[in-house]
Amino acid sequence: MLTGVVALYIALVAFGNITDFDTNREFVRHVLAMDTTFRDEDMMWRAVTSRGWQDAAYVAIVVWESAAALLLIAATGLWLPRGNRRRARSLSSAGLLMLLVLFGAGFLSLGGEWFAMWQSEKWNGLDAATRVVLLSGLALLTVHSAREHPDPAGCGTD
Questions:
Q1: Which residues span the membrane (predicted)?
Q2: What does pTM read for this prediction?
């Protein structure tokens, strides 16, 4: 179930980023430009002000989210009865790890600390990123802690 919940969530996030491209691109532009931070001169050298690089980063984020969503959707189908549990676990792990990398390393670490997103009142996505990291981490732990039980009906064999 958790794989399906995360799949639905990230699919909606990716869909929103694609259908509301300009608004969400502005978010990435402001974070990378660091234009709503405290503008500390010792940190501003980190800012990425090139629109081309900002837009490339945003497109990479959307592609990464979309790929993770597709993996998790496929994994959700494999968790259903008659599905391949090993393959489901493998695809779930890949998709969930992709989200941990994007939202943990990308948004929390790079966005939050390197680009000082935590300083921005308007363009701060740390709470949303934290939710994704926690939900994805919980799902990953659950996927790997579930014990394998033989299926008496012969469905969903490994």
A1: 56-79, 91-111
A2: 0.90
